[in-house]
């Protein structure tokens, strides 16, 4: 590395294991793989002071964002504020990539 350049990091999503949530890279922006089985739901939670991009790699998610519900299918991406209650539910086995960027 020279002149403060950052080393390139790569990850293969299918290789990640764990309880369905896995951090891809250390540091910012926080990048997470979310894998849910059909019918699984993440309880409502917030990520204050972050903007979030959710890209559905495979499957179908119903994403509850505050008072709004958005249906996302494989290939869809959504950007939203982490200041609201967020609760994804898998309509079928699903994998999503989430990037949580500090504001």
UniProtKB/TrEMBL annotation:
Signal peptide: none annotated. InterPro entries: Cupin_2, RmlC-like_jellyroll, RmlC_Cupin_sf. The lineage of its organism: Archaea, Methanobacteriati, Methanobacteriota, Stenosarchaea group, Halobacteria. Residues 35-91 form the Cupin type-2 domain. This is Cupin domain-containing protein. It comes from Halosimplex aquaticum.
């Amino acid at each position: 590395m020279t002149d403060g350049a950052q080393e390139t990091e790569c990850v293969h999503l299918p290789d990640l294991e764990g309880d369905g949530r896995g951090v891809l890279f250390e540091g910012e922006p926080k990048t997470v793989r979310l894998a849910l089985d059909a019918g699984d739901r993440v309880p409502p939670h917030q990520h204050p002071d972050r903007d979030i991009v959710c890209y559905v790699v495979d499957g179908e998610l119903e994403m509850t964002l505050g008072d709004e519900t958005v249906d996302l299918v494989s290939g869809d991406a959504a950007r939203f504020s982490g200041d609201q209650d967020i609760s994804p539910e898998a309509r079928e086995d699903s994998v999503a990539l989430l990037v949580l960027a500090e504001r």
